[in-house]
Amino acid sequence: MSTTTSQSGRLALPELGASLVRTLAHSSSVPRVVVLLTAALAITLGNPYAPQYLPVSAYVPVILLAGVVLPVRALAATYVVITTMIIWVVAFGTGGPYYVAPFACAATMGTLLATSYSRSQHGVGAFTGDRMIMELRDSLFAIGEIPPLPAGWHAERAFATAHHQAFSGDFDVAVLQEDHSRLEVILVDVAGHGQKVATRSLALSGALSGLVGQVDPAGVLNAANGYLARANWDEGYATAVHLDVDLENGCFNLAHAGHPPAVQFVAATGQWQTVTAALGPALGLLPDAVYPRVEGVLEPGDALLVYTDGVVESPTADVADGIDWMLGRAEASVGAGLSGLTTELVRQGRAGEADDRAAILIRRS
């Protein structure tokens, strides 16, 4: 057994070298690898002459850049070569003794290589993965883009993610009928926030985009609830409010699924009021849940505001206090025609950076 192991050890280096050559020769990343290794070689050759300017820590930027721009196999090959250079500098360079820098370089390479491998297992690598993530995020936002409305109608929306994450658990889906007679909007808050709910938000938004505007508005929340119940995710629930507006006469109907209540501005009284409706359970909790709908009318000058809990909830106050705060901000914006209200509410949301925030305003002039 020891003989076999010893022979394997002697064959490992040439086999490894041949593998590295094959990897680099067939890689579209060859130009990047050449540039990175040239920079590393310059540090290696320059260290004996100017160790104060080219210490071992000078490899760190090269290591970091490689972790960003190279796929996992080319990255592993590059790190093997850089490690060899670092060992040479530590053994023969003139800037020693070295205590921390070589281990810092090794730890950085190990972390970046593990991250790159994890991403490659999911089919995501280097800049391609970053572009894909950004495209998915943009697609999620675009699904909820409210089309230009007929004369006399206006809409605005605003979203903010927790801690400026790429993805939000809050999203909307909006559909304007081809004859521009009806607008449907559903605002959803998936449990959690940030990248942890990215895949769930994408999956649910895709399902809803096939429901909103295609099925009877009264059945949208029921269908969404069935989808989440079948998905059987851990913490697989979401709150939502679904709104259906007749743009010809201003009549609307809506339903809540565990979501904060909508509020309406009534121009005739100059007051904001809560749109009272029986509250259905959050989506995904009860397979046979019922979502009662409430009806109302938007007269000229009226507006309807829907939002997520990040706007009104905070660790130090209950939702009722948050809604009072929100209505105070809304009343202050009446003089400006409610313009920019959603942006202000999202920016100043009671949850702050700790949660996603979203708000949508539909106004009739």
Automatic annotation (TrEMBL):
Domain of life: Bacteria
Listed SUPFAM superfamilies: PP2C-like
Ranges where the PPM-type phosphatase domain occurs: 156-364
GO molecular function ontology, one term from the record: phosphatase activity
Name of protein: PPM-type phosphatase domain-containing protein
Keywords: Hydrolase, Membrane, Transmembrane, Transmembrane helix
TM segment ranges: 30-50, 62-90
Pfam family name, one: SpoIIE
InterPro entries noted in UniProt: Bact_Sigma-Reg, PPM-type-like_dom_sf, PPM-type_phosphatase-like_dom
